[in-house]
Amino acid sequence: MAISININGEQREVDAEPGTPLLWVIRDELKLTGTKFGCGVASCGACTVHLNGEPVRSCQTYIEDVEDAEITTIEKMAEDRVGAAVQQAWLELDVVQCGYCQSGQIMSAVGLLRENAKPTAEDVDEYMYGNACRCATYQRIRAGVLRAAEILEA
Fold first, then answer.
1. Which H or E element spans position 5?
2. Domain coverage including residue 99
3. CA distance 100 to 103
4. How far apart are CA 36 and CA 18, in angstroms?
5. What is the pLDDT of residues 119-151, one digit of tens each?
6. Helix (H, G, I), strand (E, B) or coil at 11
7. Cα–Cα distance between 47 and 51 in angstroms, integer?
8. What 3-state DSSP class applies to 118?
9. pTM (two decimals)
10. Do 88 and 135 fall into the same domain?
11. Which residues contact 107 (CB under 8 A, 6 or more apart)?
12. SS in 3 state form for 28-70?
């Protein structure tokens, strides 16, 4: 079934059956592989994308539900002011260890900073709670989000 979606600012035609998770359309059909498969049940956050500016788990978001939405993936984040600040902070603080979860971590961090420009460490921990990191770099992730807030304030 042909569906028209807006992804990263482009209108794209995709062929997907109803019930197909957005994650598989992004990765398999559109070849945007920055969005990762982690658990498939929306528990780890590796597949986080933005839907109309809000972080969502693409493994549990179905293609037929996004036809009129704006979808943004990690590939577009460097062009976003908040996304660029988060990526800069990640590089400055060497947040990444293996890197597998980091696109989801960044997408969630951007969502947090759009909601709360001056989060506390507790705010970060609470907002980022659903993003799992197998390498347990949670302290570096928290520091990265707080550093990104500083960058945005400057």
1. strand 2-7
2. 77-153
3. 7
4. 21
5. 999 999 999 999 999 999 999 999 999 999 999
6. strand
7. 12
8. coil
9. 0.95
10. yes
11. 48, 49, 50, 55, 74, 77
12. HHCCCCCCCCCCCCCCCCCCEEEECCEEEEHHHCEHHHCCCCE
